[in-house]
Amino acid sequence: MNYRSFSDLSSLIENNIQNIPWDIDLVVGVPRSGLLVANMIALLMNKTLTDLNGYLDNRLIASGKTKNVSPKLPKDCKKVLIVEDSVASGASIISCKEKMSSIKDVEFIYLAAYVEPGKEKMVDIFFEILPQPRVFEWNLFHHKGVISNSCFDIDGVLCIDPTNEQNDDGDKYIDFIKNAEVKMLPTVKIDKIVTSRLEKYRSYTEEWLKKNNIEYNELVMLNATAEERREKNLHASFKAEVYKNSKDELFIESEINQAIDINKISGKPVYCTENNYMYDGSKEYLKMESRKRGFKAFLLKFRLVRYLNKKRKNRKNGTK
């Protein structure tokens, strides 16, 4: 799974901003995701910004007073940058070009931050070739192709986590389930909701999902007691086994350590909402884990040396 975050996008734009002509008069974002990229570019280059319909209607998006931006109206602009976040089929860019075909005496430059292999010539400027399967942080929860083939945790993903006081495996917890505050609402149908909530709370959970119009194919809950779940630490292993034995291609988890364990056990990618990181067994992730293990080993060695030095000093002084 090729995943790119807001942070990845920001770095990509900053590292490639020199590839955009500095004499452009206007930046035009193609709604909705193209506006995200266009806004970043316009801010970095201190250029006037509008959306596609705004350009066609000869209106701008209002700007603040932080920087001096030349307030040219679209009809007065002779060099215009039209921006998309990505090109897959190319339908959006083709549609833009058709809309601009009747406009004369204007140089249009088409840009996409990401393009699929083979689609490079559909735009004048691109920053990265990114093959499928791919997903972006800004459209993850609304991407039908992804969400319909995903497993979702509930607590920390779809709703907030319970507090320690609420998590009493009793009346307070039931009240939490019934009235949990929504955190994220996917706009497409989820394949599986996989939660380490106990099976005995199914009816309350189903009621909450229905109340919040969250659609799904299957709700999988843990058939165990709270004591068994705690003693055997079943949270991640339970989710991982369900995910591993499913056709689903992504698990969305809220807690970092569980996300790491689910990825390791299932061998499939896991997106963690706590740090917006895609755990997929990549070399970058392995290096990060290796650095952590190396640092821990260093600390153990340092503590051992300090302990031995202290013992030697005590022996020398005749103390224990």
UniProtKB/TrEMBL annotation:
Q: Where is the Phosphoribosyltransferase domain?
A: 8-121
- Which species is listed as the source? Anaeroplasma bactoclasticum
Q: What is this protein called?
A: Phosphoribosyl transferase-like protein
Q: Which GO terms describe its molecular function?
A: transferase activity
* This protein's record includes keyword Kinase: no
Q: Name one Pfam family in it.
A: Pribosyltran
Keyword DNA-binding applies? no
Q: Which keywords belong to this entry?
A: Transferase
**InterPro entries in the record:** HAD_sf, PRTase-like, PRTase_dom
> Gene3D superfamilies attached here?
3.40.50.2020, HAD superfamily/HAD-like (3.40.50.1000)
Signal peptide per UniProt: none
Superkingdom of this entry's organism? Bacteria
